[in-house]
Write a structure and sequence with these properties.
The structure is a single chain. This protein has 687 residues and is of the alpha/beta class. The chain folds into 3 domains: 174 residues, P-loop containing nucleotide triphosphate hydrolases (Rossmann fold), CATH 3.40.50.300; 94 residues, Helix Hairpins; 377 residues, no CATH class. The chain contains 32 helices and 8 strands. The strands form 2 sheets. It has a 6-stranded mixed β-sheet, with helices on both faces. It has a two-stranded antiparallel ribbon with strand order 6-8. A hairpin with a 2-residue loop joins strand 2 and strand 3. The longest helix has 45 residues.
Length: 687
């Protein structure tokens, strides 16, 4: 959703009070948005979680307030796409109040964007968030004095606490009643003289510039802000203004010894430093040890120990996912089994049509039962990932993997959509919008389909549970690592072919460690599980019923037999899979329908084998060996993205070129790798 469509939606809400949340990445802004609006938007503890503008409403004083959560940004000078989104929204929508959310423990860095907001003339509220962390660091912030010096309300909050809502909304409504701020940072005589000359020229422009304060425009011209310069290049006296700006910039550079942009930023940070000296103090604590984040990072980011430790944590997560979920999986599986038996018994008593009973037992129970039995695995995995995200450790895993990213010539921020890909590839593709260059966006999109999403996990859970009972977690982890290695290799090959001589800057921010709240983990887990359930209720159910229909006809053919429509289709393709050890027509059909959604693979097998999950175990043990089962999992991982992912790539690249490259590459690698694994395993006597 772009700023213009957001603007249209806000304009439809007549007389509704509008608040924009602005802040640096990782300031707790989206957590506050969720607390204010009840939104289920994803909250993750690394920069770039908010990809687009999010809207929500909050009830306050017998009315409602429209709240927009803007992407995390360090500046209103759009060096990155997300910073452009923030500035475009503010200038086009003109919210009633802007709440600047700042990490109270790192105000020196956080407040730069507040200075820019105030120079733009917005009514603002400063939210000193994460006060619990600031207090633990020994910081004492005098909010009342800071409010007096800035001329805006200043509020102290702890974002994950649900009781902060009214405090913030009251401050915002109070700010809306105040006159428009007339904030003017004193840049010193030399700079102010040059600004006055440029401002006088801007005032002669014969068109309205009401949304753009002349002083702010003068500052942006002097900074060399490309988007402002290009946006105003059609002005009648643009050439005169541009000439004067260049003269002023040269004059200032001669006087100070460096460029105008650096001079202005230095002055702004000087103001921030002075403000903090007046309002922030630290109380000594002789018992205070070195900050825990630094102590943990000595091990977590160790050049030799860091990566093995990260793999060990992931292995532990997968192992716990299967061990803890096992009794719940059995319970759900047994429930579907009993439901199927009950329906068959009721059908016999009521003399129901056999086709209808087959539809319920083989189609509904057999297909959906094979999928939903593994919902506990997903819930425990999502909970573990949410804990690692919110604690800050997952960002460390991204950081220690940065060496690989450098060799791939990808931007450091590519790690964010790649990690999101472990949940679902589709939002991960959309998350590439925040990357600064087309090269980074496309290469990241090439890698994402090979990152194992949650939809593939039920496949691994089933096969690893049957054939690798004692080390399920390690086997599943190896499948995930294969996907990562294939993604790395493919991007490594694509970069020099399609993007010669293009370099990417690699910068990653490491958030402090935090103890995740139970509520935050619950919200994240519920949101992700709900996505899975919605897919099951739409695409998967429809696919399973289509498979049942094709397996039941033509009349006279045995259900899911060789002569059924689906049996004939699968028989044509099964020989292609024979060298990989799973050349059965049922598996061929499962992969065809898996194109709709990866969860459908299990539903297809459950439907075609006319079984519930419990019986499916027995059938698979007869047809597969541990070696062919492993090759099957590798093929399931690599062979083709789901149709939703392909559509997302097409939409983001505006071309069929990259979806076709990814599909052809995936099929080729899946065939080659699964065949190599099976054939080499047979030669080694593992078959």
């Amino acid at each position: 959703m772009n700023a213009l469509s957001i603007k249209e939606r806000i304009e439809k809400a007549e007389n509704e009070f509008t608040i924009a949340l602005v802040g640096n990445p990782n300031s707790g802004k989206t957590t506050l948005f969720n607390a204010l609006t009840g939104s289920n938007q994803h909250v993750g503890n690394w920069p770039g979680v908010t990809i687009d503008i999010l809207l929500g409403r909050a009830g306050f004083r017998n009315g409602s307030v429209m709240i927009a959560d803007l992407p995390g940004a360090y500046s209103l000078s759009p060096y990155q796409p997300d910073e452009r989104i923030v500035r475009d929204f503010l200038l086009q929508v003109q919210p009633d109040v802007v709440i600047m959310v700042a990490d109270a423990s790192r105000l020196q860095r956080e407040l730069h964007i507040l200075v820019e907001l105030m120079e733009l003339g917005f009514r603002a509220v400063l939210d000193l968030n994460m006060m619990d962390i600031a207090l633990r660091k020994g910081l004492r912030i005098h909010a009342k004095k800071m409010s007096q010096l800035l001329g805006i309300p200043v509020v102290q909050t702890v974002g994950h606490r649900l009781g902060e809502k009214n405090k913030l909304l009251k401050a915002a409504t109070d700010a809306s009643k105040m006159p428009l701020p007339d904030f003017q940072l004193d840049y010193g005589e030399a700079i102010e003289d040059e600004l006055k000359i440029i401002i006088e020229l801007l005032k002669t422009v014969p068109i309205s510039l009401e949304k753009y304060p002349p002083r702010w425009l003068a500052l942006k011209f002097l900074e060399g802000d490309v988007s402002v310069i290009q946006g105003l290049s059609a002005l009648p006296n643009y050439a005169t203004i541009r000439t004067q700006v260049l003269e002023s910039a040269v004059h200032l550079e001669k006087k100070f010894g460096y460029d105008a942009e650096t001079i202005l930023i230095e002055k702004q940070y000087g103001f921030i430093s002075g403000l903090l000296k007046e309002t922030v103090s630290s109380h000594p604590n002789p018992l205070k040890r070195r900050e825990s984040t630094e102590k943990i990072d000595k091990i977590a980011l160790h050049p030799l120990l860091g990566f093995p430790l990260f793999l060990l944590v992931l292995a532990g997560l997968f192992e716990l996912t299967f061990k803890v979920a096992e009794p719940f999986v059995f319970l759900i599986s047994a429930s579907f089994t009993e439901a199927g038996r009950g329906i068959m018994a009721a059908g016999d008593i009521l003399h129901a049509p056999p086709l209808f009973i087959s539809f319920l037992v083989n189609g509904m129970i057999g297909g959906l039962g094979a999928i939903f039995s593994f919902l506990p695995n997903l819930i425990f995995l999502f909970s573990g990932i949410a804990f690692l995200e919110d604690s800050g450790y997952l960002a460390r895993g991204a950081f220690i993997a940065d060496r690989v990213m450098r060799k791939m010539n990808l931007h450091g921020k590519s790690l964010i959509p790649l990690i999101l890909g472990f949940g679902c590839n589709i939002p991960a593709i959309l998350a590439t919008r925040t990357l600064p260059s087309r090269k980074d966006r496309i290469l990241t999109m090439v890698a994402i389909p090979f990152i194992s999403c949650a939809a593939r996990l039920p496949i691994y859970a089933l096969f690893a549970g049957i054939f690798f009972t004692h080390y399920q977690g390690l086997v599943v982890l190896s499948i995930y690592l294969i996907g990562i290695l294939v993604a790395v290799g493919l991007v490594k090959l694509a970069a020099p072919v399609f993007f010669k001589n293009e370099q990417s800057a690699l910068v990653m921010e490491l958030p402090p460690y935090r103890m995740p709240t139970v509520y935050s983990i619950y919200r994240n887990t519920w949101r992700r599980s709900l996505i899975f359930l919605k897919k099951a209720g739409k695409i998967i159910l429809g696919a399973v019923l289509l498979i049942w229909f094709l397996a039941s006809f033509p009349h006279g053919a045995a259900y899911a037999g060789h002569e059924s429509y689906i049996g004939q289709l699968g028989s044509l393709l099964a020989p292609l899979l024979q060298p990989a050890g799973f050349g059965y027509w049922q598996t061929a059909v499962a992969f065809i329908f898996g194109f709709l959604a990866k969860e459908v693979i299990l539903g297809t097998l459950g439907t075609l084998y006319a079984a519930t999950s419990t019986d499916l175990h027995h059938v698979l043990m007869q047809q597969f060996t541990p070696l062919s089962a492993y090759a099957f999992m590798v093929f399931s991982l690599l062979y083709m993205p789901c149709v939703g992912t392909i559509a997302a790539i097409k939409r983001e690249t505006r071309s069929w070129k990259w979806p076709l490259i990814i599909v052809i590459s995936g099929l080729s690698i899946a065939f080659v790798l699964s065949i190599v694994i099976f054939q080499i395993g047979k030669l080694m006597g593992l078959g």
